[in-house]
Amino acid sequence: MTSEVISGVGLGLRSCHYQHILAEQPVVPWFEVMTDNYMGAGGQPHHYLQQIAAQYPLTFHGVGLSLGSVRPLSDSYLDRLVELIDIYQPAWVSEHLCWSANTQHNSHDLLPMPYTEAAVRHMSERISQVQERLGRRILVENLSSYVTFAESEMTEWEYISEICQRADCDLLLDINNIHVSAVNHGFDAREYLAGMPLARVREMHLAGYEVQGDLLLDSHSQPVHPPVWQLYREAVALTGPVPTLIEWDNAIPAFSVLEQEARQAQQICQEVADAA
Amino acid sequence: MQPDDTAALQQLAQFQQQFLDRLYFQQPLTALTVNRAACGADAEQCLETYRGSLYGGLNQALAEIYPVCRQFVGETFFSAMADRYISRYPSTVERLDDYGQSFAEFLACFEPVHTLPQLPTLARLEWGWHRAFHAAQPAPFDFDRFADACQHNSGGIQFQLAPELTLLLAEYPVDLFWQWHQPDGPAEMPDLTTMELPLLIFRPGVQVYIERLDKIAWQFLQQLQRDRSLNGLCEVLGDQVTPLLPQAIERGWISGFTVES
Ligand SMILES: [Fe+2]
Question: What's the CATH architecture for A9-275?
Fold first, then answer.
C-alpha cells in the first residue's frame, strides 16, 4: 500500500470496535493499528484485522521498539514487525522517540530521553538501523513528558529536528503531546511548532489528556480539549492538510464518539483551507 | 566511536538503568538531575507520574489476562495484589503479551490469599487461555499425506500438538468458575470444593476451548507432550491409540505431524 491512499482523518483501531466496523462498514478513510497488539502469532486479533485490512487502508503505530534504549534493538521484535508489514501492507510505520527497556527490565511504557548530543546521535543511529532493516522510512512521534533533565543541552524541538535530519526520517506530530508537555514544562507551543521540521510531517495525532495534580497526563481517555483543537488549527495552517488520527486508548467510548471527533478535525482542516 | 561518545553512551545507559530501578523499586536516580516542572510539580511528583503510569499499565495487562481471578477477589484487592506482583516480578520480557506468567506462582506464596487456595489454579487456567488466545493458527491437517506416511514410514511420524495447548491438572473445578464469570454463564456460583480434574485448554479455530479430559485422554496428551512419536504413543498406550488418535486429530488437539527418516 502506498502512502498516497492515506488522507483525511483516520481512527485508531481498537478491539472493542471490531464487530461494529465489520457489521456497519463505517466511512473511515483509514485505521491506525497498534502494532504491538498483533505481535502474537494468531487468534482473534489477526482474525479481525485481516477482515478490516481487506476493506480499509492501514497504518502501523508501535510502542515497543524502544528506539532510545542503549541496549541493542531486539531482532525478534524487528523480525515480527517485518512479517506483519508483509502481511498487512501498511501505508507507513511509526514509532515513538522514547526508550522503554534497559538490559534487565522493560517498562512497556514511553520513557523520556535527555536532550543531549549523545542522545541525538544514539537515537538517529537507531532510527537509521530500523529504516535499513524495514527497507523504508519510518515516522517518529514526539512524546508527552513529565520530566525534564538539568543535563539537557537543547530544546525538545531542536532535539527532534536534529534527529530527523540525521536519520532522514519522517515525523508524526502529536498535537496533544505538544500541549501536554508545553503546560508541564512551561514552553510556548507556538515556538515549538515553529522550530519543528514541518516539511517532514506525514501525520498528526489528536487525543485527550487528564489533569493529575499539577501535571497534565497524556491519558488518551477523553475528547480532544479546546486548547489542543486550537493548536491543531495553527499547525494545519503551517503544514497544509496532513492525515490526522484520533487516538483513544482508555475508557474507550462508542464508535460514534470517535467519528464525531474526526468530523470536528475535518471541519477545522476545511476552515483553514477556506481561509488560506 | 570517540572516547567522549563512549562515555556519553555509558552515562545514558546508567541513566536508563537507574530510571527503571527508580520506577520499579524506588531506588535513587543520580545519573541525571530531574528539574522541578514549570507547572509546579517537584522532581518526586514528576517521577511518581512515570511510576504510576508503569504500574498502571502492567496492572491493566494483568487484569486483562486474569479477569476471573480479578472478579474472584474484587477489583481493589486485585489491583493492590498486582502492584505487589509487579514490584516482585518486574517485566523482563520483550512483548507485553508475555508478561505475567509467574502470577500463579506468586499467588501460591502470597499470604493474604491463603484462604483462597483455588486462586493459583484459576490463574494457571487463565494463563493457558491467554496463551491459546494468541497462538498461531495451524494449517489444516493433511489427511492424505498422513495416510501415506502411516503406510510407508509410520516409525518416523512425530505429531504436533495444537500451538500453546495447555494440560492442567486442577485441584478444583476452576472450569466451572471460569464459565460462571462469562457474560452468558450460569447464574449460580459453582461449588469450589476439592476434586482432581484434568483440563485441556487449546484453540482449534477462533475460539479458545476449556475441556475436561478422561483419564486415558489425559495420558494420551501427556505422553505426546513428553514424546511426540507415534511409536512412543503405541508403546505406552497400546491398543487404546486406535480410537484416541482419530479423535485427537478431529478435535484439533493434534494439529499436524512431521515424518523423520
Ligand atoms: Fe500519539
Answer: Alpha-Beta Barrel (3.20)
